[in-house]
Amino acid sequence: MPYNTFQAIVLQRVDWRENDRILTLFSPEHGRVDALCRSCRKPKSPLMSASELFTMGEYVVFSGKGRDYVQSCNIIECFYPLRLDYERLAAAAMMASACLKTIQPEEPMGHLYILLARSFRRLAFEEGDIAAVTSAFLLHFITLQGFKPRLNHCVRCAKRMGEDEGGYLMAQEDGVCCASCAAQAPRRSWLSANQLAWLREVLVLGIDKTQRVLDAYPIDHLKQYAEYQLETKLPELPAH
């Protein structure tokens, strides 16, 4: 039976029979891998932690009889603090769900894997604003999916958006529309000038190098944008 060793994050688990679980693993090299983890629900199973949501590890998987099986796992990080805070747990679950809806078997997605792993680390071990981390994840996520929003010019009149000018984020037109052009537009999501500037900085610099702090991060705007582009619903987040 062929064995394969790869790093992966558990995006989903489904209890199977009395003591087993079916895991959906996200591997940067192999994309989605669905594997049966046998006896992992037994109290003394060495695979108990490896079958938990959000666990990152080096999984040894073998294939046989038309199915993949988890043979062993060297855990790298379990992101345990996520389980101690409901808002952080909900944000991580939404990120995992977004990845689950886009990854495919044997389709490498290294950049998305890195984005997810770094976002989990920020949520679990850093004191940063949860809405900021989640907003940054969604912005980079939709960009990696090929739906990068146009933020510098109005998508209708092509006018350059001023630094002190807000606009409407319109998913159906893939970017920001100025106030004049969006007067009669449906599905409008207003972004302040400060929010637009933050989005531009995060796209260019990344959240770790962005010095701007917002009173309200555009998490709902970006979630709606992602849902429209992916034609699916993502899990709800707690009110913030």
How would you classify the helix and strand content by structural class?
Answer: alpha+beta
Domains (count): 2
Please state the second-level CATH architecture of the largest domain.
Beta Barrel
CATH homologous superfamily of the largest domain? Nucleic acid-binding proteins
Overall pLDDT score: 94
Strand content: 15-25%
Q: CATH top level of the largest domain?
A: Mainly Beta
Computed Rg: 20 Å
Main beta sheet strand tally, sense and closure: 5 strands, mixed, barrel
Query: What is the helix tally?
Result: 5
Tertiary shape: elongated
Explain this structure:
The structure is a single chain. The protein is built from 5 helices and 8 strands. The chain has helices at 86-100, 110-125, 130-144, 193-205, 219-230; strands spanning 3-16, 20-27, 31-37, 56-64, 67-77, 167-170, 175-177, 190-191. It has a 5-stranded mixed beta barrel. A hairpin with a 4-residue loop joins strand 6 (167-170) and strand 7 (175-177). The chain starts with a strand and ends in a 10-residue tail after the last helix.
List keywords for this structure.
240 residues, OB fold (Dihydrolipoamide Acetyltransferase, E2P), Cysteine Rich Protein, alpha+beta, single chain
Brief summary:
With 240 residues, the chain is of the alpha+beta class. Helices cover 30% and strands 24% of the residues. The chain has five helices and eight strands; from the N terminus they run E-E-E-E-E-H-H-H-E-E-E-H-H.
